[in-house]
Known about the structure:
Largest sheet: 7 strands, mixed
Helix content: 25-40%
Strand order of the largest sheet: 3-2-1-4-5-9-8
Oligomer: single chain
Radius of gyration: 16 Å
Amino acid sequence: MNDWRxxxxxxxxxxxxxxxxxxxxxxxxxxxxxxxxxxxxFLESAGxxxxxxxxxxGCSAGAHMRVMRAAGFPAPVGxxxxxxxxxxASGHVTVAEARALPFRRSAFTGVTTSGTLMxxxxxxxxxxxxxxxRRVASRWLFFIETHAPEPTYTDYSDLMPPSWxxxxxxxxxPLLPGWRMVDGAALMGRKPNYGTLDAILFRKRN
Length: 206
């Protein structure tokens, strides 16, 4: 069975964009905006302060960690299940699963993912992971995920493990009790094959 811990996960990390420049160039072509610019504007407009420790779950080779830093926010601590991917990342990274994070309650100001939730597992596994995010985050949850108009399971055969995609803007709020969706945006690809991304920010209710 394919697993992100094994060769498929490491191969994906090898193909994955690592530098901010590569990521921004890809986003500019696909969505008409650099990722670092979008992240900064999206978070600043919601009043997210540019301080406090963040955690990225599923950081792979660290592309999103670098983008967060380029956007003016602290580079997150990164966790991933693949040792090979983490060797390509920089900063504070460690091996961990989304559903068993090795951190104390409210250890981070926020938790972020970029293209990770779709690979966490089926809905019952995702619910466990989201509970862990809520446990270790004291204020913010920030997701950038591949959109699907309806719940969709995709089997990639030998290329990489399967994915579960959703209309995240509607799907996530009921799974995050005690948290309020502050902002959400759909980034439409400039060509049909570029797809759509959902960017969503939640704040913990007082």
